[in-house]
Amino acid sequence: MSLALSTLLYEWRRYMAAVMALALSGLLVLGMAGVFIGIGKGFTATIERSSADIIIMQPGAKSLIGGPAGVPRRFIPLAYNHPEVVEVQPLDGAGGSFQSVRNVDPTKSVAERARAGAPKQNFVQTSIIDTRPGSVTIPTDYSPELVEALRQPYTVAIDETAMRSLGVKLGDKALYNGQTVTVAAILRGYPNMMQQSIVMSRDTLRMVGQADTGPRVGPLMVKLSDPTRAEVVAEQLNQQGDGQWKAWTRQDLADANQSAMFEQGPLIIILGGVTVVGIIIGVAITWQTLRGAIMANIKEFASLRALGVGMASLRRIVVELSFWVGVVGVAAAIGLTWLVAVFAGTQGVLIALQPQALIAVGGGLISIAMISGLLSLGVLKNSQPADLLR
Amino acid sequence: MMTTKSHGKHGDFAIEAKGLVKRFKSGKAYVEVLKKVDFDARHGDLTMVMGPSGSGKSTLIAALSGLLRPEEGRVDTLDVDDLWKLSSGKIDKFRLDHCGFIFQGFNLFPALTALQQVETVLKFQGLTPAAAKKRATLALEEVGLKPRLHQRPSALSGGEKQRVAIARALAKDPQILFADEPTSALDGENGQIVIRLLRRAASEHGAAVICVTHDPRLEEWADRVIKIEDGIIIDDQRRTPNPNATLASHH
User: Fold this and answer.
1) Does the residue B100 lie in any domain?
2) N or C: which end of chain A has fewer CB within 10 A?
């Protein structure tokens, strides 16, 4: 074991501040990025867990919802022209007000009614499934019982994280756009931090009067006879469409969806700001800690100098030391972030830890540590062996 | 062709210094700490440099060993003519190859075991890890620390720490060994072990041992005693060492 590594391990308390500074800088950046990616995942969950092998949208659209994703209805038969396509269904969705039902004495004052938990009105996003077994619009993790429940007219499903804010639980009645619906199922794994969403069947959507009946429909969900050929078929569908549409494989769309999120200005500003703060804190604390730690061993370094070990070798020791501090800091950062993610998970908040983010942040932390090491090289000047003579 | 690794014969000059002058700035005035000092030390000799504090004895060995540049004078040492003409990198290399150092403080890395303290320096000298380990073990055995090879400084007594520092200096098999007050942080018994090890480095290894001290009891072991006061050598005597002298203050 090298001198640097043994020193770090033996005198770990001395280096703790630096390791913690790095870990917290890492947590700051990883946690923020994780929360944003998690929010994005809430939106893309529907894509990633969709049964569709290919999704056909308007060229230029990158996300199922919000963007100009819909296509003319006549594209449905056009997509069926490909011999490997077995099912095409347009995704449909809408939005509306959602209000829990509760009996509260109407003669009481507003404040008293609020205290008693009077119903609140929320705006929700509605998406649909087709309840025919095996339909392309049913997400892969929906159980047959769930589909069965949604097959009943005027039923909806909500995510478990939405129960509290929507003020309903399983079996409750609620008003959707003024019409009574029943919460027939609770979903797990579809949290959405921006806006709550509910799921209903296409038929229920039609019954509440919000289904697409005109010449335009939502994005087309396409099922293939052989899902492993999705990329090839998507390519062929794009040739066939001749620029009128764009066919995405499920994974490509999910990726595009996520990166589209990171093209948004505020996210970049927040993440960039957090990164800058993280770097400043990391460098400042790590630098000062390393300086202090080297000063604590300065006599030992000076005695090495007296024995003829050159300044360059001492500098290498310090740089190696800062490298190891960085490595430990990365481990601590990942551990901390993982803990926070686990905790957040129990609260229904998704923090996504992606390998690319871990590698980028890990590399960044090691660079911070090494920069701090380079900054603290100056104190080695104090390793004057002549000072040891008296 | 005079560069061989073997040590000079007993009695050959290891260091010759002429006209060393060192001044320190003190306020507006300069204090002359070394006033044209001539000095030499021979292989196989334990040369004792004695004097009261502030007499310039530590400054003298700093100038001799290439640690502190003197204003005037030259130091010829081993096969190097005028050490202070070399670049600082070359001076470091010279010390790495030929010099050992022992200080009053032990200056051991808290994280390293006795064995690792000694190995570290040897590895910087370019030895392979296996060779460094072998030589470090030998050196520590020579100072009587075989049972303490894997102890860290926190588990060693003051005397043991100084012996590790001596092993660290001796493992390099130096031709010149500088010791600055090596016994003043130790009790009589440990001090005696240390001075005997220095004696042996001179007699058996043929090193030129230059020992700065103000402890007159150490004179017993010296081949030569140089007294310095106010930057001037006032006395220089050869004597016959008594290797069996005792330092213990009792009896």
Assistant:
1) yes
2) N
